[in-house]
Amino acid sequence: MPAPPLPEAAPHPPRALPRSTLPDRALALLLLLLAALAIWSAQGLVVPFAGDPVGPKAFPTVIGVVLGLAALALLLRPGLGWESAGRPWRGIVCIAAMLAYAFIVVPLGFILSTALLCLVIARAFAGSWAQSLLAAALTAPGLFLLLDRVLDLPLPRGPLGF
Amino acid sequence: MDAFGHLAGGFAVALAPLNLLLALCGSVAGTAIGALPGLGPLNAIALLLPLVFALKLPPESALILLAAVYYGSGYGGRIAAILLNMPGEPAAVLTTLDGHPMARAGRGGAALAISGIGSFAGATLSVVLLTFLSVPLSRAAVGFSPADYVALIGFALSLLGAVAAGNAAKTWAAACLGLLLAMVGIDGGTGVERFTFGTVELLGGIDFTVLAIGLFAVSEILLLLESPVAAAASHLGHGARLTLAEIRRCVPTMLRSTGIGFVIGVLPGAGASIAAALSYSTEKRLNERDGTFGRGDVRGVAAPETADNAAQIGNMVPMLALGIPGSGTTAVLLGALLMYNITPGPLLFTQRPEVAWGLIASMYVGNVMLLVLNLPLVGLFARLLMVPAWALYPLVIALSFAGVYAASNSSTDLLLAVGFGVAGWMFRKLGVPLVPIVLGFVLGRLLEDNLRRALSLSDGDPMILLASPVSVVLWALTLTAILWPVIGLWKARGAAPGAPPGCPPG
User: Fold this and answer.
1) Which of A90, A121, A156 is opposite residue B394, by nearest beta carbon?
2) Is A117 contained in some domain?
3) Do A138 and A98 belong to one domain?
4) Exposed, middle or buried: residue B502 (CB in 10 Å: 0-12, 13-18, 19+)?
5) Are residues A113 and A65 in the same domain?
6) What contacts 24+ positions apart, CB below 8 Å, involve A95-104?
7) Which residues cross the membrane (chain A) (predicted)?
8) For a FRET experiment, which of A36, A154, B16, B305 has its CA 20 to 30 Å from that of B125?
9) Residue A28 lies in domain
10) Parallel/antiparallel/unpaired status of strands B193-194 and B185-186
11) pLDDT band of B380, cuts 50, 70, 90
12) Do residues A31 and A70 share a domain?
């Protein structure tokens, strides 16, 4: 008896169609600004005596010029950039949580702060509260045991000693 | 034929108990990470890099582990492509074309088996080629002057723009950003601070692990948040098992695909996805009268999988022999070597034979392990497709950050990693490729050092850059590669306006 065929796999979620050249032009301007900054900052590098004929500023200047040229090319011929599925707030919440993590990981210790971070990310990935709490409660102590205790990589300990 | 003697020495390293265990761990971890939804080879290595470094493994052991993860993920990536029609990385798109129809006909197990055999054939034959090619190549490069190296690195970077799928200007800008990031910190030649913005934390330069984790792992998670990959149950199917006759029918395909994959892999800049596409279209054209390609032909599964793994190994040739990585993943491997103060390149084979030959020998061992692991256990790895997003991605981020912290003991590096993650996320949405950033970062110091050394030798006369025939040829090739997209632009303008530029017909 032949096995029933597999159901048709769901196709990828369609990406939103790009609409305007604005993102590419904004990117080009940003890159142009970066190039100008790099070149300007490189000109300030002075060495008391010439150890080698090139010095520290030639290379950043050249790369800055190439970056500027690439940015100009992009500005003149922008593509249709920015793929978006239109749920930016989840990303923003996660970025905020990750930034906060960098500040709390030493004072709070690895286990507590990592559990909080995992909770936020699990919720952002549409986990229910129970699922997210489970993910946080297993991931943080599990990693601490594996990395700090088994593999002997020191992770920050909080006021409670873990 | 001293390659055999060196290889024997390499096997002595690769078969040491610790290294054997690490190769096994790497193979399992690589297959698992490759199979997990949304995580490809680059993420696999980026995630493990800081941990490996913090564990203070000897360099050859670290490299054996990371390389096993690298080629192991090539075996894992096909599972989702075949069973669920979800390619986890660009190279796996071609595998879906015939692999998924086979799965829908109930022959998912057979498709996975032939792709495993193809991966093994492509990888192992390529390691044989690597064994015999890298020493002559590195010997030819021993005579390279600093000026020749400048030309070689210029050529490698220019190829990126020529083969880039997207906008060439964005590729160039990305490479420049990588080069600028490499300059952050104290200039080795003069002791001047560059681009440190007056901070102490940046004096030592940007840590490679921070860049890799941020750009790849963190940005991947942010991207997945917008369009999450749904976890799904999958079945291997109960259709006919793979027959010996089918394997025999794939042998010529595998041999041709290995050739294509290896050659494409050796060229810097051209990655595994190009190799997979080229080998698939070659096989399709050769077997046109059968009309079975695209409907579940075993050869259509074997071709891209063989070429993919052959190209992965081919990528290692310029990395080991010349010190010039050809792909994002080998750039990360090179970054790992540089963290150990080992400079790959011509002298690696003579100065650190245990690293070079230990790695090569371990690739023979690792691929046998992977074949043995993958044929019977593929069902187990396929279960990983069911791991839900809310369990997997918090773990990935926690592991990333633990790795960054363990490698540097600094929470500033965590902020930096998040910053790179946000930048990488934006760049991906804008179509700016990330691989040139890593390549530029890794090659930046090498390029500047050689440039300054060359100009010191000539007392500042730039003509030294064109003094040797090697450099003249390389600069000519570089110029061609730079002008290639411009020529393409011309042609596209002449062509019908309906045809998007850069897309091959068919």
Assistant:
1) A121
2) yes
3) yes
4) middle
5) no
6) A95/B222, A95/B418, A95/B421, A95/B422, A97/A121, A98/B218, A98/B397, A98/B401, A98/B414, A98/B418, A98/B421, A99/B415, A99/B418, A101/B401, A101/B414, A102/B411, A102/B412, A102/B414, A102/B415, A102/B418, A103/B411
7) 60-80, 92-122, 128-147
8) B16
9) 22-46+56-76
10) antiparallel
11) confident
12) yes
Residue A125 in any domain: the answer is yes
Counting Cα atoms < 13 Å in the Cβ hemisphere of B20 gives: 6
CB B428 within 8 A of CB B219: yes
pLDDT tens digits for B222-248?
988 887 666 666 677 777 788 888 888
Which of B173, B177, B398 lies closest to A139 in CB terms?
B398
Asked if residue A144 and residue A94 are part of one domain, the reply reads yes
Judge if A94 and A142 occupy the same domain.
yes
Which residues 297-316 in chain B show a CB within 8 A of chain A? Answer: none
What DSSP assignment string belongs to B91-146?
Answer: GGHHHHHHHHHHIIIIIHHHHHHHHHHHHHHHHHHHHHHHHHHHHHHHHHHHT--H
Tokens of B460: 């500042």
Strand residue runs (E) in B285-415: none
Is A160 contained in some domain? no
Dihedral class, residue A145 (left if φ above 0, else alpha if ψ from -120 to 50, else beta): alpha
**What average pLDDT does range B24-50 have in this prediction?**
85
CB A23 within 8 Å of CB A81: yes
- Whether residue A60 lies inside any domain: the answer is yes
Rounded distance between C-alpha atoms, residue B413 and residue B419, angstroms = 10
Closest chain B C-alpha to A22 CA, distance in angstroms: 11
Q: With an 8 Å Cβ cutoff, are B422 and A140 in contact? A: no
CB neighbours of B131 closer than 8 A, spacing ≥ 6?
A: B3, B7, B360
The span from the CA of B467 to the CA of B148, in Å, is 9
Select from B123, B118, B122 the least CA-distant residue to B246: B118
Give chain A's domain count: 2
Do the beta carbons of residue B405 and residue A155 sit within 8 Å? yes
* A60 → closest Cβ in B100, B183, B221: B183
Q: Which residues between 15 and 34 in chain A have a beta carbon less than 8 angstroms from any beta carbon of chain B?
A: 15, 23-24, 27, 31, 34
Beta carbons within 8 Å of B503's beta carbon, 6+ residues apart: none
> Does one domain contain both A72 and A106?
no
Between residues A45 and A38, which one has the greater pLDDT? A38
Highest mean pLDDT among B4-8, B97-101, B198-202, B324-328: B97-101
How many CB pairs lie under 8 A apart between chains A and B?
A: 237
Residues A92 and A146 in one domain: yes
**Pair B437, B231: CB distance under 8 Å:** no
Cβ contacts of A126 on chain B, cutoff 8 Å: 228, 389-390
